[in-house]
Amino acid sequence: MPSQLLNQKQLAKLLDVSAPYLSRLTKEGRIAFADPDRKLYDVDQVRAQLERSRDVRQVVATETRRQARDAGVAVAAPPPVVDGAAGLDEDEPEYGIDHHENYKIAASFEKREAARIARIERMELEKSVGRVADMEREAYTEARIIRDTLLGALPTKLAPTLAPIADPFALEQALREGLRAALHDIVRKIEGADAAG
How far apart are CA 193 and CA 51, in angstroms? Predict the structure, then answer.
C-alpha cells in the first residue's frame, strides 16, 4: 500500500496536534519531510519518528530517575508526554503550547489596544468638531443679529428722526446717538442669545 503524503496542516489535523507543534518538531529534527521540495510528510514515517522520539525520551527519563535514586536524591516523576505538549521548554509560558499561541495572544491584545486608542482619538475629534460647530453656530447667530439690527431696524428707526434735520452738526449728533443705541441693542441681543444657547 503506498504511503500517504500530507502537508503540515492535514497531518496536524490527522494527528490531532497543532501545525506549529509539527513545525517545531521538524526544526528540532524529531520528524522529517518525506518530500522536502513540496513540504509533504509521510504519515507512517512521522508516526514511527514520533514513537522513536518518545522511546528515547522515556529511556532518558528512566535513566535520570535511576541515577537520582542511586545518589539518594528525590526526583518527581515527569508528566506524561502528550502530543500537543511534548517538548515544551521550561521557560515557555504555561498559557500556550507553542510560541504561535503566545503570538496570537499578544496580537489580540495589540488589536484591542489599537481599537481602544482609535476610539479615544475619534471621541476627541468629535469633541473638537462639536466645539467648532458650536463656535460657527454662535458666529452665525451674532452676525445675523448685527446684520438685522444695522440694516433692518436702524434705518427704519432713524429715517423719521433724521429727515427733518437740516443742520449737519445736529444730523451727525442724531446719527451718532442712533448708532450708539443700536450697538447697545446688538450687545444685549448677543448676550441673550449666548445665555439661551
Answer: 86
27 touches 67 (CB < 8 A):
no
44-63, pLDDT tens digit by residue? 888 888 887 765 556 566 66
CA–CA separation, 128 and 130 (whole Å) = 5
Grouped pLDDT means (10 residues each) for the chain, 197 residues? 81 86 86 89 87 65 69 55 45 48 70 84 79 81 86 84 89 90 86 76
**Radius of gyration of the chain measured on its C-alpha atoms:** 43
Distance CA 32, CA 39 (A): 9
Burial class (CB in 10 A: 0-12, 13-18, 19+), 42: buried
Q: What is the pTM of this model?
A: 0.33
Q: For residues 91 and 18, what is the distance between their CA atoms, to the nearest angstrom?
A: 20
DSSP 72: T
Instruction: Quote the distance between the C-alpha of residue 114 and its chain's center.
Output: 2
Long-range contacts of 25-30 (CB under 8 A, 24+ apart): 25/50, 25/53, 25/86, 25/87, 28/87, 30/87
- For 121, the 3-state DSSP assignment is helix
Contact predicate 20/83, CB 8 Å: no
Cα separation of the two ends of the chain: 87
Cell of 179: 448708532
